[in-house]
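Hey Z.,

So I finally got round to the 2-acetamido-2-deoxy-beta-D-glucopyranose thing we talked about over coffee. Here's the setup:
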Amino acid sequence: MTHNFSSLVFLLFLFVASSYAIQGAELDAICKQSKNPTFCFNLLNSIPGGATDANLVDLVQYALDVTRVNLTTTTKLIKRLIRRNPNDIEARDHYTLCLNRIHQGAFDAVKSTEAILKSREFYILNSIACGIRTQIDLCIDGESPSDTPYNDTSLLPAYASVISEVVEIIVIISNLLDK
Ligand SMILES: *[C@@H]1O[C@H](CO)[C@@H](O)[C@H](O)[C@H]1NC(C)=O
Ligand SMILES: *[C@@H]1O[C@H](CO)[C@@H](O)[C@H](O)[C@H]1NC(C)=O
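And the result:
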């Protein structure tokens, strides 16, 4: 177990170290800013061809593609949760709000971010990308600051937190593109 774990860490190290030659330093700089650097490295290195063959725009586009897949998975989960709670008004209200925020708001924000990326208006990319996370936060925390967050024991908060991590990477790279 310990052995397997250390070989995994070593392989990961080799993988990261082998990226170093081309733009590993940049990859380091990006992922060190994120709350979960391991997740960040894994995600960016999972781009077909590897992160080292990609430029910053490719990486943002890839992270947006991942976000879209995540949002689709999460939308399906929310629809299931709504079906499963026909008599629980609080749960239904919460998940209906989340359906609007995730299925509608967050997808729209991904589309806007993609459009801004294509038009290379990097100076507003960051704020538009933050809009994706706002939609997710509104689902989890409620619509207004006075709302008590719904005590959600489903998988939804974990799914939402993964999406937030992906969006965080998009925001970090957006800041670099704006330089
Ligand atoms: C989101 O995508 C990432 C990367 O493919 C994956 O690890 C994660 O499980 C996905 N999460 C959801 C909720 O779809
Ligand atoms: C949330 O619900 C779980 C399971 O029903 C319960 O154990 C926990 O105490 C609740 N937390 C809050 C803050 O109400």
